[in-house]
């Protein structure tokens, strides 16, 4: 919850960042981009470090880094220190897959499915509740208070982790793949900068083309190296197994489907009524309308756990993708009032709650127990790539549909419908991929139940 709250903390003041940080409107988006890139790079690295040196130890280190980043942000009045702060906060995203991996190590099989579902649900709850809380705090206090709150949450988590979470005993031997870290970092930085900045720089800009091609070349070379090194950062042979590969591809599609709605619905709710499509709500009220999606994820966690125990994670992922697709169909038909968007978002939260509960279990059933952290970190990276792609593609689509109605400038209804259609296509793609996920041939850990093939 703390990690997802950290990711939404700047949304209420995003448009005010140029004034607050005394920077240009072209430079301040890097505050968001830097966090995204840092999270994408550090998540698989944190997973590998957790497998080698202990998951609890790495989680606690990441929580201290998150607290440090929040404190620096709380003291920042300029762009550069804020960028440093957000990079540190983004690095803490690795606590999410590591936390799920800890569950595999310490919980009995009958509790594992429900626990993973609950952890997955807190991602949505943190984001859904974080937005209205951030909006309310911003309206009532100085914006720096947001980061003091985030620092307090991180330090509280550190204390609770030290008191409650047992010391990790399952370790993998080996050395840290420094070359692999450098290669993955360079490739991801190039791709993510291109994806996140393509809309503002222009997709035909030589810088974007160079970053895209360069990133792909670096990642290809990185993959070839990882296949040859004895102790790789990411075991691509394990990652190429059918259950792992298809689950990761489905994660990209589900990440896209989730974030497409996160781009569309806030704008629909906040655009002036004069546009003919907007509902003219304040940020705080709009956040309250969107919050039930997180509540839906939380409510579905015991249901998801029960489905996993009875049927396994694959039907759960199929059901989640199907529900998300249904929510987009409903959204395409009904989006003209506040209650309609609330219902659509609630249905979407149910689907995401089911799908996000299934993916870690699908991964962990197909990889050796000593590689759980790295495998979950890679899966979290895949979801991040999906959300990043959604932000870029949907943002570009809405930007191209900008029109002026009654003197108000904003995206057209056709643009919003096109964005929702993209979310529907991503959900259907996730559903198709989930259907073809095979049963793993081996199970490496007794706490993960298997159905007979």
UniProtKB/TrEMBL annotation:
Question: SUPFAM superfamilies, per this entry?
Answer: MFS general substrate transporter
Q: Where in the cell is it found?
A: Cell membrane
Q: Which residues cross the membrane?
A: 28-46, 58-77, 115-133, 145-169, 176-196, 208-225, 245-265, 277-304, 316-335, 341-359, 380-403, 415-437
Q: Domain Major facilitator superfamily (MFS) profile spans what residues?
A: 1-441
Q: Name one GO molecular function term.
A: transmembrane transporter activity
Origin, by domain of life?
Answer: Bacteria
Report the main location listed first in the record. Answer: membrane
Q: Gene3D superfamilies recorded for this chain?
A: MFS general substrate transporter like domains
Keywords attached to this entry: Membrane, Transmembrane, Transmembrane helix
Entry's Gene Ontology cellular component terms: plasma membrane
How does the protein's chain sit in the membrane according to the entry?
Multi-pass membrane protein
What is the name of the protein in this document?
MFS transporter
Protein species of origin: Amnibacterium flavum
């Amino acid at each position: 919850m703390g990690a997802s709250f950290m990711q939404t903390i700047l949304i209420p003041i995003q448009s005010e960042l140029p004034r607050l940080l005394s920077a240009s409107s072209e430079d301040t988006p890097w505050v968001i981009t830097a966090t995204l890139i840092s999270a994408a790079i550090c998540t698989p690295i944190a997973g590998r470090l957790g497998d080698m040196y202990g998951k609890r130890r790495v989680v606690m280190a990441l929580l201290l880094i998150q607290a440090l980043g929040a404190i620096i942000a709380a003291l920042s009045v300029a762009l550069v220190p804020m960028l440093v702060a957000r990079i540190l906060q983004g690095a803490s995203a690795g606590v999410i897959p590591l936390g799920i991996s800890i569950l595999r190590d310490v919980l009995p099989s009958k509790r594992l499915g429900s626990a993973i579902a609950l952890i997955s649900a807190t991602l949505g709850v943190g984001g859904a509740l974080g937005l209205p809380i951030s909006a309310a705090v911003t309206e009532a206090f100085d914006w720096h208070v947001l980061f003091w709150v985030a620092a307090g949450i991180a330090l509280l988590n550190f204390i609770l982790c030290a008191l409650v979470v047992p010391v990790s005993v399952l370790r993998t031997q080996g050395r840290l793949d420094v070359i692999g870290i450098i290669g993955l970092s360079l490739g991801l930085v190039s791709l993510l900068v291109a994806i996140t900045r393509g809309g503002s720089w222009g997709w035909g800009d030589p810088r974007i083309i160079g970053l895209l091609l360069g990133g792909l070349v670096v990642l290809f070379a990185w993959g070839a190296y990882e296949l040859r090194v004895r102790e790789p950062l990411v075991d691509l042979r394990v990652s190429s197994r059918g259950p792992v590969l298809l689950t990761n591809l489905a994660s990209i599609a589900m990440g896209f489907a989730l974030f497409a709605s996160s781009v569309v619905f806030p704008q629909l709710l906040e655009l002036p009524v004069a546009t003919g499509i907007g509902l003219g709500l304040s940020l705080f009220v709009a956040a309250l309308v969107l919050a039930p999606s997180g509540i839906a994820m939380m409510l579905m966690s015991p249901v998801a756990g029960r489905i996993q125990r009875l049927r396994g994670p694959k039907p759960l992922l199929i059901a989640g993708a199907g529900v998300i697709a249904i929510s987009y169909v409903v959204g395409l038909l009904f989006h003209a009032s506040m209650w309609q968007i609330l219902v659509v978002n609630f249905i979407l939260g149910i689907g995401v709650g089911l799908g996000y509960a299934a993916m870690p279990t699908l991964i962990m059933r197909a990889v050796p127990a000593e590689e759980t952290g790295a495998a979950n970190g890679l899966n979290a990276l895949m979801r991040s790539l999906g959300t990043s792609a959604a932000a870029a593609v949907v943002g570009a689509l809405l930007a191209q549909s900008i029109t002026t109605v009654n003197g108000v400038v904003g995206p057209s209804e056709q643009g919003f419908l096109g964005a929702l259609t993209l979310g529907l296509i991503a959900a259907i793609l996730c559903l198709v991929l989930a259907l073809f996920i095979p049963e793993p041939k081996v199970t490496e850990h007794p706490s993960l139940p298997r159905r007979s093939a």
